[in-house]
Write a structure and sequence with these properties.
- Strand 9 and strand 10 (285-286) form a beta hairpin.
- Helix 2 runs antiparallel to helix 5 (205-226), helix 2 runs parallel beside helix 7 and helix 4 (188-202) runs antiparallel to helix 7 (238-262).
- Strands 1-3-6-5 form a 4-stranded antiparallel β-sheet, with no helix packed on it. A 4-stranded mixed β-sheet has the order 2-8-7-4, with no helix packed on it. A two-stranded antiparallel sheet has the order 9-10.
- The chain is of the alpha+beta class.
- Helix content is 38%, strand content 23%.
- The chain folds into 2 domains: 46-141, Immunoglobulin-like, CATH 2.60.40; 144-315, no CATH class.
- The chain contains 8 helices and 12 strands.
Amino acid sequence: MTVIKSSILLITLLTLSACGGGGDSSNPSNDSGNSGNNTPLPATLQLASEQIPISFQELEYAELTFNLQGVEGTLDVTVEHDYLPEGALIETLINDSMVTLKVFIGNEEMHNQVSTVKVTIEDHRSTTNQSVIWEGAIPILNVSGDAEYERLNAIGQAAQAYAELSEEQKLVERLAQLAQLVDASTPINQQLELINRIKQVISNDEYSALLGEANSMLDKHSQQYLNGEISETKLSEVTQSFDTAIAEYSHAAHLVIQEAIAATNGEVTEYEYQGAHLTKSNLKFSSFIGNQSLGEYQDDKWVFNSKYILLEPIATPELETCNAE
């Protein structure tokens, strides 16, 4: 019986040894079975840096650049915005881990517009995709509209200065003096009457009211444009109001000037009325500079004809970069 038990025990030990049973679970030789659990975790997609323009400018390109970390797959970009002017274009360029958006801004009509832009960059991976999002507000500069705003406000100041008719009044005074020199028998009352009539034009309530309406319209439209309530096209309508007021002043003054010219008995020749011209370089209204019957531009400088050289010290023409409108 003892022999049988010993044989059974020996067989059992041999069997365990051959099957690897009874070994120490802490034996390093068994660690190879856990190697599949050491797979590295996927990299996290991150936005490392970005370059964003301070503002968009109409009819120009702007670039938004995004540098990424942790890219493992293929990048895909989605761009959303709440507003861009008509004609805007967006081009997406992807170079490894850098994304560039080239944005062309169309013609902007309004002032103080802002575009909220949302950029989603997705990394398409063999496992789970990852994405990053950038969102920001970028102002849009209406360069032409802002320039028109400045121009119209300068026109308002120029119109107010023209309404004083300082050049026309000086001319009438000199013509009246010339008439007295040409013919000493010319009544002094005629000279005084001419001067008084040009002053009446200056103080005319109807013309002053038209100019006042134009200034009020300018103030209203300017504020509406700055508030983003009207477009630059609507703002430009103010010009017509000033043209109407200036035309009344200039035509009435011309009639007085023609009478003063007639009093010189041919010493000064009558000239064609062409209204008041707005010079482009200094935004000044003038009844004389720009009137082609009185002179012409030579090398960008206005030169009076010899018959009207007396106007030179009155009009004091300055160098002009281009012809008057």
